[in-house]
Amino acid sequence: MKLKLVLTTCAALFALGASAEANDLVFSSWGGTTQDAQKAAWAEKFMVSTGINVVQDGPTDYGKLKAMVEANGVTWDVVDVEGDYAAQAGPKGLLEKLDFAVIDKTKLDPRFVTDYSVGSFYYSFVIGCNVDAVAACPKSWADLFDTAKFPGKRTFYKWSAPGVIEAALLADGVAADKLYPLDLDRAFKKLDTIKSDIIWWSGGAQSQQLIASAEAPFGSVWNGRMTALEKSGVKVETSWQQNITAADSLVVPKGTKNRDAAMKFIALATSAQAQADMATATGYAPVNIESAKLMDPETAKTLPDQQTESQVNADMNYWAQHRDEIGERWYAWQAK
Fold this sequence. Notes:
The chain is of the alpha/beta class. The protein has 13 helices and nine strands. The protein has two domains: 173 residues, Periplasmic binding protein-like II (D-Maltodextrin-Binding Protein, domain 2); 148 residues, D-Maltodextrin-Binding Protein, domain 2 (3-Layer(aba) Sandwich).
């Protein structure tokens, strides 16, 4: 997702943890309304049940995490990361193996469970639109790439990650079950057709702002951000046609000094009620298979796990295997 800065000195690493006491558990996520919800649904309940203080940090930064581990100066205990990053980082020695004697993985969606990670929540890239700012809203990925029919700026996710490349291929007519292996030549050729009309968003809050202000009145965004916009009073339309699912994961950096507490935190965060509370607050789907029955039925039916008719599941394992090479080409293309 996101920032790829690398700290260059151990001193800088330790300074990051200076505000946290030795017995505090530090949780890093992406900020904004999502981390606010994680704090309320998970961290505050964890503090009450265990007496362990949870310090919020972020945004998650993969370069920083790697530098912490390599310098033996880990100051993050639990980190919310993208699913494909988790699948790659674990075997590379950057993550602790999870303790499934503490974390009940039998209640978790198996798509999002590895030796080193469990799902945090899962979401869909949908086509979001500010209804009051345009004559008509795009309904399909082909529509979003059609600048004649839908003129003006559109917004897409800035970072190399599942979502945009798949959308470009779907817009170009590739069948959902034929997406992988990704045809990068074809995807970038399609992206070239709208490149000058793209405004990139680097975080969820920015995507909300772009659509709300109509600087980019439509685009590819996380479904939960459209939920947040609607709650704020902006008149929006969300198209779930071929919505592209991806997931965030919870991981523990290798070398944490609070391993036992980290496992207990993840156990609570992935419990049925905690996941139901998080889903209700954000519009993202729970990873605990028992959470839906704890939610208001009207809310539950609006989540990504209920939008399956034309849903496209991004292949996290493919991305984990090809993350570096795709990223190299992605950023070179953006810089042209």
